Amino acid sequence: MRFGKFTSTTQPGLNYHFPYPVETVLTPKVTKVNRMDIGFRSERDTGFGSSTGVGDVPEESLMLTGDENIVNIDFSVFWVIKDAGKFLFKIQDPASTVKAAAETAMREVIAKSKLQSILTEGRSLIEIETQEIAQSLLDEYESGIQITQVQTQKADPPDQVIDAFRDVQAARADMERSKNEAEAYRNDVIPRARGEAARILQAAEAYKKQVVAQAEGEASRFISIYNEYALAKVVTQERMYLETMEKVLADIDKVIIDKNVSSGVVPYLPLPELKKKTN
Question: pTM for the whole thing?
Answer without folding.
Answer: 0.53
